[in-house]
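Lab channel / #folding
Pinned by the channel admin:
"Please post every new chain as: sequence first, then the structure tokens as a reply. Keep commentary short and put observations after the output so the thread stays searchable."

First post following the new format, from NK:
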Amino acid sequence: MSRIKDYFSLVKIHHTIFSLPFAMIGFFMGFRAMDETISWRILVLVILCVFFARNSAMGFNRYVDRKIDKANPRTSRREIPSRIISPGSALAFVFVNAALFIITTAFLNNLCLILSPVALLVVIGYSFTKRFTALSHFFLGAGLALAPIGAYLAVTGHFSVLPLLYSFAVLFWTAGFDIIYALQDFEFDTEHHLRSVPVMAGKRNALILSALIHVVALGLIYAAAIIGGFGWLHWTGAAIFTGLIIYQHLLVKPNDLSKLNLAFFTMNGIASVIFACFVIADLYLVV
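Reply from TO:
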């Protein structure tokens, strides 16, 4: 059990709270669109896909960044730099989870199976991006954005505009809060020539850009509410989500990052769970 906890700590399993609620939106939206009874078998498979894909992505990120993490005082105590988990074991963990992800998609439908290597390429490829582009935050967002459309595809086997809107909302929402998170490594990233929006634009401008990116994310959520013909529950959830995003930006200042973890994890985790609950409730309770 201690070894399992080490691997869960390696991939920060609790951060699944960012993507899983939006995967649930895609899942329930798919069954609502098909007007069919919910399949708990597919629900379990979707959750496993999120779990395995995220383990692959985060495990690979920790493997690729192991030398950077060792040099950074903030991350030097992570599992690989501190030798709790060896680089080889971490890479094996990545391959096992990637294989399990592909196998799990095979139990969903052919489209999910065909697209599974593409999904892995997106979520794993993010790990290299901060070495050559300040847009790395958007690549991370693209990985999480697969959750709602992926879950919808798992249920229906085809694409649709509405879940894609939520996917793009997740992309911009994630990019926005990842820019805020990157503020704490501003000096280290600058010194080691790593790319990020804070390094490119400075701390104050990065916060402004993050806010503008979050405006785009919120616009996509409200557009989905209109296009999908949602009721008051969705709009209430969207309003709460908006309030929490605004509060997140009020917590962090260019010269005061003391509340950054509260803004990053707590606010975004609560926002995603609450919003998903209201959207799913709207799908089934509002006529």
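NK: The two ends are 47 Å apart (CA to CA).
TO: also worth noting, The longest helix spans residues 260-285.
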